[in-house]
Amino acid sequence: MQLPSFEQVSSSPEVADLGVAVTLDSLTSRVGEPIILHGSYRIDKDLIQKTHDEPLTWVLVMIVRRDLPMAWVKPVRTKPNIAPLPMQKEEPIGESVRRGGYFNLDLRSHVGLPDEPADYWLMVSMGNYITERVSFRVR
Question: How far apart are the C-alpha atoms of 42 and 73, rounded to whole Å?
Fold first, then answer.
């Protein structure tokens, strides 16, 4: 699979209702190997409108090194730093509308993790939603 990708794969986690969920291919990686993250999200009308229907720009990957004061934070997808366009006038979004999507990343290249052994914590947020902290290791 070419990374990053934004399609569902067999490792894509389920999102029970609303929010964001992630999983790693492995909790232990070797120096120089990819660290593959699979993510899914489901949002409602309010977050669709807040994100101007570009929710991946609101998904933040946060990695903290456990033994040193180092952290990396980066959106899953970036856009130019310009004012967002208002949503086009279409049929109004109903209260019960839910939209979802997927993302697959190599954390090492996406956030620029160093090629050295270390232990990390991973969290992913999207608006008011945040995943549980996931511990992973590079050896």
Answer: 21
Kindly state the tokens that stand for 73. 């934070």
Report the 3 state secondary structure along the chain: CCCCECCCCCCCCCCCCCEEEEEECCCEECCCCCCEEEEEEEEEHHHHHHCCCCHHHHEEEEEEECCCCCEEEEECCCCCCCCCCCCCCCCCCCCCCEEEEEEEEEHHHHHHCCCCCEEEEEEEEECCEECCCEEEEEC
Distance from C-alpha of 7 to C-alpha of 24, rounded to nearest angstrom: 16
Place of tokens 């969290």: 123
For 71-110, b/e burial (b = at least 16 CB within 10 A) is: ebebebeeeeeeeeeeeeeeeeeeeeeeeebbbbbbbbeb
Q: Could you read off the pLDDT of 69-89 as tens digits, one per residue? A: 999 999 999 876 656 556 555
- Distance of alpha carbon 63 from alpha carbon 55, whole angstroms: 20
What domains can be seen in the chain, in order of their start residue?
19-82+92-138 (2.60.40)
pTM beyond cutoff 0.85: yes
Residue among 13, 71, 19 at smallest CA distance from 37: 13
